[in-house]
Amino acid sequence: MRLCVGTSKGIVVLDAERKGKPLMVLADPPSVWCMAQDCRDPGVIYAGSVDHAHMGSARGRGTLGRSTDGGRTWADLTPGVARNEDVWAIAAPPDGPGEVFIGTSQARLFHSLDHGRTFRECAEFLKLPGRDRWSFPPAPHIPHVRSIVFDPHDPMTIYVGVEEGGVARSRDRGESFELLNRGIYEDVHCVAVDPQNRKRLYATTGAGFYVSENRGGSWRQVKRGLCRSYTVPLFVAAGEPGAVFTAAAAGPPPFWSIGPAGADAVMFRSVDAGESFEAIGDEALPERAMVMRFRADPESEGDFFAVTTGGSVIRTREMAENATLIAERLPPAYDLVALP
To answer: DSSP assignment, residue 332?
Structure first.
């Protein structure tokens, strides 16, 4: 199995079975923040780029790339109507070959039905109440779509996380939206639906971990076992009921490069559907680094891969009891996909 890793300096292709030199390194796309694969053909990969000084990312002329050969070559698909916007989130529905959504800066959402050749904007997303107050702490204070996920029980339902704007839901594949911000800190990084219970949602934010038991109608913060507050990645194991994983830093990204302990990050595991957590795998985290993304291991249900700002790629097994370092000293890594 190969891994296609998105870094601040481009694409790196690795052999997941052994640690060693990359199989391939590509400088174009020049900076990758988020990735997704087509539901029918995993060799079709989408990659989004951002310009984020705190993360060491500087995008090129385009912000959306697509590979049709497993990451070997790439084409620029940046929509003309979003040419000057970063792509912060990408998601391909599990039941729609050729279909893909992208979320951009200015908190805009776009939808394609033809492998990204053309996009239309989800206009109703622009009409959500309170949108004019959405912001982002660092200048120029532009909010962005950070997470797009489909309900595995009903892929017509989409949840969208905005940094900072909260959580929105569409029940009709992006035709209409409603806000779900009751009780949640609105600096949202990742959203997930429990594969065992569609009413149960999880969200990571800049102020901790949140759970909803009524499909986002209301949220409550979970603190038990979490000794860090800036939560980012999120993985809910499909084959392990109650298993939820996250990672959290001691503070936001501007402090990761200047603080005495860097991100001071910890990975956490819950075995009770997010009601409590325990720290895991501290030794697998390189000094100062933050875990940015978890991705399911297609060869082992319940296991996952992780990438870090320190340029490491980690493979976990047995509910993250064991971790293997696949790569290190890469450029800061933000996402990855697995290729058969």
So the answer is: P
